[in-house]
What does this fold into?
Amino acid sequence: MLRNLLQNTNKFGSNNIKIKRYLANNSNVTKRICIVGAGPAGFYAAQNILKQMQDVKVDVIDKLPVPFGLVRFGVAPDHPEVKNVINTFTKTAGNERFSFYGNVALGKDVSLKDLRERYHIILLTYGADQDRRLGIENESQANVLSARNFVAWYNGLPGAENLNPDLSGKTVTIVGQGNVAVDVARMLLSPIDELKKTDITSYALDYLANSKVEQVYLVGRRGPLQVAFTIKELREMLRLPNVTTHWRPEDFQGISDVVDKLARPRKRLTELMLKSLSEQKPKIETKKQFLPIFLRSPKQLKDQNLLFTINEMQQDKAVATTLEESLPADLVLRSIGYKSSCADNELCFDAKAGLVPNIHGRVLKDVNDKTSVDQGLYTAGWLGTGPTGVILTTMNVAFSVAKSICDDIQAKKINMEETKAGLEDILKDKPYVTWQGWEKIDAEEIKRGDLVSKPREKIVKIEEMLKVAGV
It folds into this structure.
């Protein structure tokens, strides 16, 4: 009866969590899995595990009170179609064998030891929360920021609201040529009226409305054939109204000779760059400019000028020459990659690579021992692979790791006989957010967005989130 009640409920009611707990505790569920991290990797893994195994209960914890990780805090506000995966994740959360515990941090509120005692299996998917530094002189100047933090600022990640980037200068130099770098460039150059229609935070919208930025350099250490951004992001930049994209012809010497030998995705991207180059006018006619530059490695920052070493390509590697070039940089944004942090001292962690070493998702016992795995401990997402690929890549890896988990269970590689208690006892005095609490936050954000003709107005203070969730 209770199962039918849950299935026929159109909207989660206040008693839903009690119903789910009753069903989970009074069915044939015997196996308990904890996923640390409620981003795409965590949800995709949960989806696959719940589908493949009917006697498993999955608890997902996250250090933030709200779910979805980089889908909420990393995807650009003007890419709402990418955020549609939230609908899939929400469906997964509706499974009676799924529970969400927000505002619960590994290494702070619970330890890896705590989780081992309370779950048969632990899957770590808490992502990459640090950015790689340039390693140049004066990098700590106030006009040097992380692109990761800039994205977090305009996307409303709690704690990033006070970044207050100085946009009073005309020039921003972005070091790096991945999709994050292009996203940031687009946000800096997009018409403010278009951004008003997105879920960008109101404080970021105010800053961008008053921005004096006119030129955005996108600088990479290698050539056009090695850029990390994708064709979709480049097309969007080329179509920005009242923005001129200006390429340096010398960066493309010899490129047209090798286009036909490239793999199809790289070929199409290179052809688009060459087409844009061939169509550009000798004189820039717009106030706002997007300026990609290749074969440059940052060397030194002095006031509002960034000195670069000029490189040349040798065997697909960028090799420094003795030549240099200085570019104006009222604001510098570094975007040369992310890395993860070690959330718990008991976790095997490769500090140099910035990830958890693993074999097909199975966490190693020791960084230097590639054969011995820590039974029952797994990782997926950027924590296990490094910051690579798009959401589809993350999905495929998460599904693969989920299969590894299910295979290990079926092969009886993990002791599943002992009854595990889950988290509720250890969290009884901790203000945590359930899925129903998140739904209250979600509804409130949409309500606030309606008042200003936006999809949502994100709540950025954790204390306010907890209050809205009723914690």
User: Anything to note?
Assistant: The radius of gyration is 24 Å.
